[in-house]
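dumping this here so i dont lose it
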């Protein structure tokens, strides 16, 4: 199978690219934009000509579309740029894939829901409450309007990072280590999910496809542990034996952009296909956080 991964320099794309490329039967190309990396293909998704050229040159069977603007506050501050990437570029890519016979897998988010009625099945009605969620939902609609593509919705992600603040989960390590008093969100319930687990889920899906399974529509994947940011910080402090007495719980946090409270994703559709997850959250967190904790803390 010939696979193209967009956003292969990002938090999720790096793991997806690495894991799929390790399969000797598959030919995998990853794309980069402002960053670069060995063997990655530069691709600016805001340039329609570049999208078409890349697809015509590579002739992929599957495109895993990880590239996106995924920070809700940055989306709200730069709505035109976020819409251009999350919606317009996705629509172009989806249309070109359909025309050239490639299947597009669109990575989406639990933020397409309003967070008031969890758990959400794959056919639950989306009702995003912030700009990021609306842009990702519009991206989904563009993808699902084409024949044969599918969508994978994910919750809060963590994994190997270039710097801790790259993910809201690893960023908590700095929050704990800087020892400044801090009140953390104890209202929104999240389901931290490892990018390496997601990469494995995607690999399992592609193996099913190679075996003749037809994947279509919307799928959900999620870690199983529910926690607020405050509870997650306590879990991290406990794992790494760090003092966290300077951290308190904020049960009524203020957000610049609105956040849904609990978007728990029901992953029954993928479980029914036999897709399996990884080790429990503390084990996954420890393997990501321990190497970071061994690095020196940056001084102010
Ligand atoms: N992170 C989460 O907690 C989370 C949760 C749920 C769903 N998701 C979804 O998961 C997907 C991956 O997110 P992520 O966390 O990996 O994002 P990320 O770390 O911010 O990476 C974004 C990727 O998009 C690329 N990109 C940005 N602008 C581009 C452009 N104009 N043309 C081509 N590529 C461009 C970036 O390339 P350069 O860095 O090289 O510029 C980077 O590889 C997204 O669809 C996101 O909505 C993420």
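and the seq i came up w/
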């Amino acid at each position: 199978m010939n696979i193209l991964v967009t956003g292969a320099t990002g938090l999720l794309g790096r793991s997806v690219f690495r894991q799929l490329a390790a399969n000797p039967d598959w030919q995998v190309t990853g794309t980069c934009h402002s960053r670069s990396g060995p063997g990655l293909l530069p691709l600016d998704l805001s340039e329609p000509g570049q999208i078409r050229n890349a697809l015509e040159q590579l002739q992929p069977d599957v495109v895993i579309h990880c590239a996106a603007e995924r920070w809700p506050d940055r989306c709200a501050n730069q709505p035109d740029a976020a819409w251009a990437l999350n919606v317009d570029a996705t629509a172009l890519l989806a249309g070109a894939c359909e025309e050239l016979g490639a299947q597009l897998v669109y990575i989406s988010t639990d933020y397409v829901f309003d967070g008031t009625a969890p758990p959400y099945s794959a056919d639950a009605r989306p009702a995003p409450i912030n700009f990021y969620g609306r842009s990702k939902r519009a991206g989904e609609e563009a993808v699902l309007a084409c024949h044969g593509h599918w969508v994978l919705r994910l919750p809060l992600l963590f994994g190997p990072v270039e710097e801790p603040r790259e993910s809201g989960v690893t960023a908590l390590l700095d929050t704990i280590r800087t020892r400044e008093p801090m009140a953390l969100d104890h209202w929104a319930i999240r389901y931290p999910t490892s990018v390496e687990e997601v990469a494995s889920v995607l690999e399992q899906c592609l193996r099913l496809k190679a075996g003749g399974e037809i994947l279509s529509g919307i799928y959900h994947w999620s870690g199983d542990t529910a926690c607020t940011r405050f509870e997650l910080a306590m879990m991290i402090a406990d794992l790494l034996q760090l003092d966290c007495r300077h951290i308190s719980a904020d049960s009524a946090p203020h957000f610049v952009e609105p956040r849904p409270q609990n978007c728990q994703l029901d992953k029954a559709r993928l479980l029914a296909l036999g897709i399996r997850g990884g080790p429990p959250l503390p084990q996954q967190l420890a393997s990501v956080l321990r190497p970071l904790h061994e690095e020196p803390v940056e001084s102010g």
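The CA atoms of residues 1 and 129 lie 38 Å apart.
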